[in-house]
Automatic annotation (TrEMBL):
Protein name: DUF3105 domain-containing protein
Keyword Transmembrane: yes
Natural source organism: Streptomyces monticola
TM region(s), chain numbering: 31-53
Region feature (Disordered): 1-21, 58-84
């Protein structure tokens, strides 16, 4: 007797077997692709996490460094402010006029440390003026808590450059020449004044620390911008 399967049925069986084999191969390929993709994603996630943690750690270190530096500077500022300033001259703030006037004002000291003044202040946001400025505007700046650095022709260029750098870095300060003053370099605040030997004189740091927006300020927090400039 002949085979029970006809040629046609055998052919169909082979085709079906081939299809099953193809489907099995596709499933294996999908599994391999998914596994590989998962591994790649896991690697990327892991690398991304590493970069994130590294960046976070670096930021935390930088923030800690900045905070430590700020604490150090604040400590130095407080120490400087606490030191007495040798040869400092003081005037009774209550006896210094504070009226806004339009007429010329004659001050009893040079540079002036207070008194009646113009209603407009001299910009004192770290401003450095190369020419003399009106006293009546500078006095208003002192009322707002500014420290005024002044000098005459006897001041050394090296000292002036250092003082200029300090002033430019210090809000509520200004600098200008006052040819008539006795000392080569003088620092003034409201009711306070000292003549220093040079930019490296420790009294400079103490004067800035104590009187930039210090307790002597009649109008603390008042603006040092929006006034007039040279």
């Amino acid at each position: 007797m002949g085979s029970s399967k006809s040629p046609s049925n055998a052919r169909k069986a082979r085709i079906e077997e081939m299809r099953r084999a193809e489907r099995a191969r596709e499933r294996r390929n999908r599994i391999i692709a998914i596994t590989a993709s998962t591994a790649v994603v896991a690697g990327l996630v892991g690398f991304g996490s590493y970069l994130f943690i590294k960046d976070r750690d670096e930021k935390q270190k930088e923030e800690a460094r900045v905070e430590a530096q700020q604490k150090k500077q604040e400590k130095e500022r407080k120490e400087a402010a606490a030191r007495p300033i040798a040869d400092e001259k003081n005037w009774d703030a209550k006896k210094l006029g504070r009226n806004h006037v339009t007429k010329p004002v004659t001050y009893p000291m040079t540079p002036p440390v207070g008194g009646d003044h113009d209603q407009v202040w001299m910009n004192c946001n770290g401003d450095v003026y190369t020419k003399p400025i009106p006293e009546k505007h500078a006095v208003h700046s002192l009322e707002h808590g500014a420290v005024w650095v002044t000098y005459n022709g006897k001041a050394a260029d090296a000292d002036l450059k250092q003082l200029e750098t300090r002033v430019k870095a210090t809000p509520y300060s200004l600098m200008s020449p006052v040819n008539e003053q006795k000392g080569a370099i003088m620092l003034s605040a409201w009711g306070k004044q000292v003549t220093v030997d040079g930019a490296k004189d420790p009294r400079v740091a103490s004067f800035f620390a104590k009187y930039v927006q210090g307790k002597q300020t009649p109008e603390p927090g008042a603006a040092c911008t929006g006034g007039i400039a040279q």
